[in-house]
Design goal:
Helix content is 30%, strand content 23%. By secondary structure, it is an alpha+beta fold. The protein has three domains: 5-65, no CATH class; 104-190, PDZ domain (Pdz3 Domain, Roll), CATH 2.30.42.10; 194-457, 2-enoyl-CoA Hydratase, Chain A, domain 1 (Alpha-Beta Complex). The longest helix has 25 residues, at 5-29. The termini are far apart. 41% of the residues are buried. The model is unreliable at 6-36 and 449-469 (pLDDT under 50).
């Protein structure tokens, strides 16, 4: 039957919409079977709505559009609506992720996340262009090369920050209570040496900047080097401050390095039977020497797994500030073997060995110490603290607990304290000298104890040998 021109146009339009909707459905279901609580009729209706919208944009928008970009943007929006850490990775973004976890890439050295239409810094990487420029955890990326960054996804910001070694990018950062920081960052090859180590007097200092494929091996080598240089080393400080996380396997390896036995972490999915537990194997590479772990609100994800495991297993004393509170598991699922990118989707929550949820709460230190007076003021105004709890779409903790609100830290140095000195590290070393007994640290040398906002200089003799040595 021959249709009038108007009917033929309508038929062709509907056929096109059906093809678009079917393509979207096929993309969404590729490689997996999706069980939805939404009635199937409603699902198909909403997919048709998506196709209708795409067709209208393609036909009526003021300039020609790139359907591929529109669909990728829709996928990104769908994923970020779930929680701050679920996202769609374009093929290039998926490749970038693989590079980062193997330990080398070219860029400015930032761990970032998106929330509420803005991209924030979780932590700058050690000795990266961003770290040297003074970028801090919680800074908002407001502009890149003069173009507003509001509304961009993590992948889009990452694409603009990365580039060939030696090229530069101008970035504007916003920070609570301060003027915008506009800085030009020169891209360089970020060789992520995740572990560094050195001696601090009688003690070993181990710094882990990120958790990648090499972390466990690098940590073992650093410990061995310190024990070779000083066979009678008396203990270790493990510094996880401003470590934005990384691979779960690396976090397990690091925890296992210091534990003889016991659970490290468990992860629990949507269903009651979706529980995986990870336990330590015999063999503490430090021989059971005293251990202090340094954390702050830039310590996230894998850092929190390590801190939580060592605290719950009573293997270490934690010093610093409450950690970020990212206690969720993201699984990366390639689409068509990565040809169409991948989905990084939250599939479970982490729990410490005692069953505590990390999500939104973070790990609280045994000895709360701010690095400087400015940081103490930030903690006293929790609205300025950048943490998982600040995300409007963050998952809840699943156990009803909440992150500690605004409060005055137990300790902090005064305004005249040497800005180049590391007060938190000094207190960690004090803990080791005291044999881990915090009751002996009620008043430490040169320490400043903050009680109800009153700052008092402390004085006590801690030259006595630690008990048990």
């Amino acid at each position: 039957m021959t249709l009038p021109p108007g009917r033929r146009a309508e038929r062709d339009r509907m056929r096109k919409l059906f093809i678009v909707g079917g393509a979207v459905l096929a993309l969404g279901l590729s490689g997996m079977t999706v069980a939805s609580q939404t009635p199937r009729n409603e699902t198909f209706r909403m997919l048709q709505l998506f196709g209708d919208t795409l067709a209208v944009v393609e036909q009526y928008y003021v300039v020609p559009v790139d359907n591929k970009k529109l669909i990728e943007a829709a996928l990104a929006g769908m994923m970020t609506a779930l929680d701050p850490h679920s996202n769609y990775l374009s093929p290039d973004g998926y490749g970038d992720l693989q590079e980062r976890t193997t330990g080398e890439y070219s860029g400015v050295g930032l761990t970032i996340s998106a929330e509420g239409g803005v991209v924030k810094v979780i932590s700058p990487m050690d000795d990266s262009p961003a770290a040297r420029a003074g970028v801090k955890a919680g800074d908002v990326i407001s502009a890149i090369d003069g173009q507003n960054a509001s509304g961009l996804t993590v992948s889009q910001v990452s694409d603009r920050l990365r580039g060939a070694m030696g090229t530069s990018v101008k970035v504007t950062f916003l920070r609570d209570g301060e003027d915008p920081l506009e800085t030009t960052l020169v891209r360089e090859v970020i060789k992520v040496e995740s572990v560094t180590g050195r001696l601090e007097g009688d003690f070993g200092y181990l710094r882990i900047s990120t958790f990648n494929e090499n972390t466990g091996r690098e940590l073992a080598a650093a410990i061995q080097k310190i024990r070779t240089e000083k066979p009678d080393v008396k203990g270790f400080v493990l510094d996880l401050r401003n470590n934005g996380g990384g691979l779960l396997t690396a976090a397990i390896d690091v925890s296992d390095t210091f534990l003889q036995r016991g659970e490290i972490v468990s992860q629990r999915g949507r269903k009651p039977d979706q529980i995986e537990r990870y336990a330590a194997r015999p063999g503490d590479l430090t021989g059971g020497l005293p251990l202090v772990v340094l954390i702050n609100y830039g310590s996230a994800s894998a850092s929190e797994i390590v801190a939580g495991a060592l605290k719950d297993q009573e293997r270490a004393t934690l010093v610093g500030l409450t950690s970020f509170g990212k206690g969720s598991v993201q699984t990366v699922i390639p689409l068509r073997n990565g040809q169409d990118g991948a989905l990084s989707i939250t599939t479970a929550r982490y729990y410490t060995p005692s069953g505590r949820s990390i999500q939104k709460i973070g790990i609280e230190p045994d000895l709360e110490v701010a690095r400087n007076a400015a940081e103490a003021r930030i903690v006293s105004r929790s609205s300025f603290i950048y943490s998982e709890a600040a995300y409007a779409t963050a998952l809840d903790a699943s156990i009803g607990a909440e992150r500690k609100g605004a409060h005055t830290p137990r300790e902090a140095p005064g305004e005249d304290y040497d800005k180049d000195a590391d007060y938190q590290l000094q207190r960690a070393l004090d803990v080791l000298r005291a044999g881990g007994d915090l009751t002996r640290l009620a008043a430490a040398p040169d320490g400043i104890v903050i009680n109800d906002g009153t700052i008092q200089t402390a004085a006590v003799d801690t030259t006595e040998e630690p008990e048990g040595e």
